[in-house]
């Protein structure tokens, strides 16, 4: 067995991340004894990130305590959230604290295994061998997922489950989440119930059922199940996240903020700070938002994991608190770190315009706005677009601000956060009287296009209906309301006229884009179900 194991391990490339040279050398030696002789070393998170970006590693052994700015958990979080690690990479977290795993296992980005010091080659080998066995068994599923073939992945789950029942829990977890992504809510529910029948303490399966309730339009049931989960496990991060989603959707922003603050208490990371900061900003709690983004910057200070959005958010909050000089100071400090980031440059100029206006330097404010406008280009409507509109209002360019905001709303009139933020920008800049004429009218104009297209469809004028929606999509290609209407229009046509392969391709394209723009959305899930039902009905009639 040892020979077979060493033969497998000899093909692997590893990296050891530890700030202590003696520990790096020790682990490198143990890996070498197992047959892994391609081993790189990194003393800091930045050194590790540079190597991981330049090479493909199969095994990453990382100490939890790295430096004051970034620990091993935060590095893992960054690597996974940015999609830097390949799915097959094995990430081992090394810690001297045997209790650490019970806390960190609550995080949404988890290592493949925790290794408690002192390490031994045998324990490392056992973990690697088990993970390689699992990877090999689940490879048909992961290959389907890699190719974005989610339906095929679900089918492979059933095949692999019969061939490798040892990994049934992992298979059910993948199958359940993939079914949810496909919008097959009741099928996913059945998978989660199957998992709980095997082991009643599988928290991820309990949370999966709560997600099913959410997507089925049963928020009260989802709430009750989440509260039940948290009453038994107050450190389960994903439960707080789902609770925040539910309460925000209900317009209960303060409750959403409270849920995210509790999640930060469990895992105090830069990402958690950002979530708290965004939620606090939406509720109008600027002091809480300022503290949260200052924490995010502190978590990543001097590291490659630093994100420009943290500095921009903090600077904007200083402006909103009428602390213009502090806003400019934050931007000036951040320039050296993010000077090559075009998004930072555009945001920096827009926020600087507002700060200069507060300091009564209108010439500098207008010059900064023009720079921001040029840098922003045709970016998709988001918070940065609204920041640009806010800069225009601050610089005294009312018509320009109205034009920018109106265009952003028309481009994505069903984006609740965007619309809410737009109303807030107008109120904050003393233009609350324009909310009706700018925001509400822009929403009405976009909604009217959908209504007209729907009416044309009802009147049997499919081509005219499609032409109206295609014209709107050409003007606003990421308008979620228009995309949903286009998908529905094609599905209605096929439900009445029969299967059309070209239309199926179009609908899949619309829904794929919607999945990116509004992940885990209930309406998108219903569209997927409608598509499946349409295909089943059409196939029966053939």
**Percent helix among the residues?**
over 70%
Number of domains: 4
Q: What is the rounded distance between the termini?
A: 55 Å
Mean pLDDT: 88
Pfam families: Response_reg, TPR_19
Protein name: Response regulator
Domain Response regulatory: 13-132
Keywords: Phosphoprotein
Tell me what the structure shows.
The protein has 542 residues and is mainly alpha-helical. The protein has four domains: 1-148, 3-Layer(aba) Sandwich (Rossmann fold); 152-233, Serine Threonine Protein Phosphatase 5, Tetratricopeptide repeat; 264-443, Tetratricopeptide repeat domain (Serine Threonine Protein Phosphatase 5, Tetratricopeptide repeat, Alpha Horseshoe), CATH 1.25.40; 446-541, Alpha Horseshoe (Serine Threonine Protein Phosphatase 5, Tetratricopeptide repeat), CATH 1.25.40.10. Helix content is 72%, strand content 5%. The chain has 27 helices and five strands. The chain has helices at 2-9, 21-33, 45-54, 72-81, 100-104, 121-146, 150-163, 168-181, 185-198, 203-215, 219-232, 237-249, 253-266, 270-283, 286-300, 308-320, 324-338, 342-358, 362-376, 383-394, 398-411, 416-428, 435-458, 462-475, 480-497, 501-517, 522-541; strands at residues 13-17, 38-42, 59-63, 90-95, 113-116. Strands 2-1-3-4-5 form a five-stranded parallel sheet, sandwiched between helices. Strand 3, helix 4 and strand 4 (90-95) form a beta-alpha-beta unit. Helix 18 (342-358) packs antiparallel against helix 19. The termini are far apart. The model is unreliable at 1-5 (pLDDT under 50).
